[in-house]
Amino acid sequence: MSQVVVVSGGGTGIGFATAKYFAGRNGQVVVVGRRSNILAQAVEEIGRAFPSAPAAIPFTADLTLPDQVEGLRDTLKEKFDAFDVLVNAAGGHVLRQHPASAYADGLAGVARRWTDNFRLNTLSAVLLTEALVDQLRAPGGRIIFVSSIAAYRGSGQGCYGAAKASLHPYCYDLAKALGPRGITVNAVAPGYVEDTEFFGAALSETQRAGKLAEAMNGRAGTPDDIANTIGWLASPDACHVTAQILQVNGGAERGR
């Protein structure tokens, strides 16, 4: 029987690579995101790459809005008796999505910037997880969060790293609560990952060179690096791994 896997942020970057990972292992993948056109492209590409896998299912929702998350939950209940893996990959830095001028109005801008990052990176994962947790297969279910190296050392803006860091105690609490049901809960904390919307063309060549120099292996991460780690955490081989934050950053968090 195919694993049923829900991937938020599944249309691009790490989420898309993760969806492809599970489709490549004949999983039934549900990709969730805010942009229907991006999800449609992702589903089409997954179908071309893995024509023998169950057709990926797109679901458009803003995961910061409870009513839309409830709609997703109800749809999944109608389609599946249970699901096996939940990957919370949706997120991003609002200053990468909006100009700094959008938050330039003093303390009101500070409050909005911090709130927007919390909603995008923390609340989206919390609402989706709380909505779907009772549908996870037990034993054997897996919940995986995508955190960031910024949760350990900051991001230069405060709000993004803090939003990602708040996922860590939530991960620990869930792991403790769900452990008796045989469900594991972990997070992956990537460093610099190329070929994602998060970085895109945002870095200058000097900045990129600095990122590469931080890694002990001298290279950037790829979405597949993160997807492979997520896939391992979702496998039977990792059944005794829970309440962990796995850093996948070439050792960059330790510095050189």
Strand count, sense and barrel status of the largest sheet are: 7 strands, parallel
The total of helices stands at: 10
Morphology call: globular
What's the quaternary structure here? single chain
Measured as a percent range, the helix fraction is 40-55%
Structural class: alpha/beta
Strand content: 5-15%
Q: What is the rounded distance between the termini?
A: 46 Å
Number of domains: 1
Instruction: Please name the fourth-level CATH homologous superfamily.
Output: NAD(P)-binding Rossmann-like Domain
The unreliable regions are none
Broad CATH class = Alpha Beta
CATH architecture classification: 3-Layer(aba) Sandwich
Q: How many DSSP E strands? A: 7
Q: Mean pLDDT across all residues, rounded?
A: 92
Secondary-structure element order, as H and E? EHEHEHEHHEHHHEHHE
Question: CATH topology, which one?
Answer: Rossmann fold
3D architecture notes:
InterPro entries: NAD(P)-bd_dom_sf, Sc_DH/Rdtase_CS, SDR_fam. This is SDR family oxidoreductase. It comes from Trinickia fusca. It is globular and about 50 Å long. It has ten helices and seven strands. α5 runs parallel beside α7. It is α/β, with parallel strands linked by helices. The N and C termini lie far apart (46 Å). The protein has one domain: Rossmann fold (3-Layer(aba) Sandwich), CATH 3.40.50.720. The chain has a seven-stranded parallel β-sheet with strand order 3-2-1-4-5-6-7, sandwiched between helices.
